[in-house]
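user: can you give me the structure for this one chain? tokens are fine.
assistant: on it. calling the predictor now.
[tool input]
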Amino acid sequence: MAQFFMYQDQQISSGDTVRVHQEIAEGDKKRVQVFEGIVIAIKNRGAGKSFTVRKIGANSVGVEKIFPVQLPSIKKIEVKRQGDVRRSKLYYLRAKVGKAATRVKEQSTFTKAV
């Protein structure tokens, strides 16, 4: 089982595809910036817990961003897909190129009939 954390009554774990809505202050204006990618790592415990989100940007360049879980500027975290992974740290995705870098098996939502 991969590591997970709870954020506003939803469970977010390694391998999930998430959209992180973060409030950015530029001068006296504020705007919300959305960063969408795969959660590749969850580190530490308690108040110091953080998670790393990786996305493939322009020209197939990988972009990673580390968010502390209790960062006040995070307004919302949406889970787009729940991944089914066997590892807690998905650093092997850094070596993948193209679609393989974003391909994680999706967790099935149905239960098996016995």
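assistant: here you go. The chain has one domain: 4-99. The mean pLDDT is 87.
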